[in-house]
Amino acid sequence: MHILVLGNTGYLGAHVAEHLRALPDVRVLVAGRSPAADITVDLATDRPRDLAALLAEAAPDAVVNCAGATGGDAVTLAEVNARGPAVLCAALRVAAPGARLVHLGSAAEYGPTEPGMRVTESAATRPAGPYGATKLAGTVAVTASGLDATVLRVGNPVGAGAPPTGLPGRVARLLADAGHDRDAELRLGDLSAHRDFVDARDVARAARLAVTAAGPLPPVLNIGGGEARPVRDLVRLLAEAAGFPGRIIEAGSGGSARSAQVSWQCSDITAARDALGWTPTHTLDASVAALRAAEGVPAR
């Protein structure tokens, strides 16, 4: 079986590629902008016919699209998160119409939801900003493509390799810089929002199961921890793991504007359990420990 992974140098893409390589009788090809990639691809700029030619040569049995942008202006987000999946689907319809496509979406596509509510895949999508809107556009391109495709709508991933552009990676980096200075102050935004955290390894396992599942899959599957935790809990666990003796100050500003518009996020993961036999296996504590270990500092 040949599996093509796009975006393997990214946070979740690296985990997905690693999990897929562990499968027997599987050859994993990677595609992206890196010179080290098996196939040089840029979904933000490539034309469908050029990408189709590359895909025809690779002849994948399955494709996992982990390429995406979480930051940047609206144009950048649209090029990668919306145009990218549309171009990929157009190329696959020509070059490998029988290949299964597994695309990583985002719970940000749902937008604001009622506190205490677990959203199912049939819930209304009302993204709060350009990121969620462009991810939703990518999901629509995939689900309307006519391909054997499914979108894994991922919650807030935590784990090894978390980038500094997201809260877990940013806080871990700030804590590492602060060291053990008792007078240190970590100034963050409002941490009262609730998020559905999921370990990056559990996301990768869901992608692996989606690639190898027999028969068609639902068009969208929620992949999350299945519970909402205050962001404050994540920061506290990171600080405890780092042995941080200073003060954490919620300044009420300086946080993500996108996050500030969504105070509650929690996904119903029943459909993923039924379709894939998947449930998360790593606790938030384990995710924090993996993030710390990847930073080269053992968790305390």
Write a brief structural summary:
The protein has 300 residues and is of the alpha/beta class. It is built from ten helices and 13 strands.
Task: Kindly describe this structure.
- 39% of the residues lie in helices and 18% in strands.
- The protein starts with a strand and ends in a 6-residue tail after the last helix.
- The longest helix is centred in the N-terminal third of the chain and has 22 residues, at 74-95.
- The strands form 4 sheets. Strands 3-2-1-4-5-6-11 form a 7-stranded parallel beta sheet, with helices on both faces.
- It has 300 residues and is an alpha/beta fold.
- Strand 5 (100-106), helix 4 (130-143) and strand 6 form a beta-alpha-beta unit.
- The chain is globular, with a radius of gyration of 19 Å.
- The chain contains 10 helices and 13 strands.
- The chain has helices at residues 11-21, 48-58, 74-95, 130-143, 167-178, 200-212, 231-242, 257-260, 270-276, 284-294; strands at residues 2-6, 27-32, 39-40, 62-65, 100-106, 148-154, 156-158, 185-188, 194-195, 197-199, 220-223, 229-230, 247-250.
- Helix 1 (11-21) packs across helix 6 and helix 2 crosses helix 3.
- The chain has a domain at 2-158 and 199-224 and 266-281: NAD(P)-binding Rossmann-like Domain (Rossmann fold), CATH 3.40.50.
- This is NAD(P)-dependent oxidoreductase.
- It holds the Pfam family Epimerase.
- Belongs to the NAD(P)-dependent epimerase/dehydratase family.
- Residues 3-224 form the NAD-dependent epimerase/dehydratase domain.
| SSE ordering | EHEEHEHEHEEHEEEHEEHEHHH
Mean pLDDT: 93
> CATH top level of the domain at 2-158 and 199-224 and 266-281?
Alpha Beta
CATH architecture of the domain at 2-158 and 199-224 and 266-281: 3-Layer(aba) Sandwich
Quaternary class: single chain
Q: What's the CATH superfamily of the domain at 2-158 and 199-224 and 266-281, by name?
A: NAD(P)-binding Rossmann-like Domain
Major sheet details: 7 strands, parallel
* Strand arrangement in the largest pleated sheet: 3-2-1-4-5-6-11
Structural class: alpha/beta
Distance between the termini: 41 Å
The fold-level CATH name of the domain at 2-158 and 199-224 and 266-281 is Rossmann fold
List unreliable stretches of 5+ residues.
Answer: none
Q: What is the number of helices?
A: 10
Domain NAD-dependent epimerase/dehydratase: 3-224
Protein name: NAD(P)-dependent oxidoreductase
Pfam family, one: Epimerase
InterPro entries: Epimerase_deHydtase, NAD(P)-bd_dom_sf
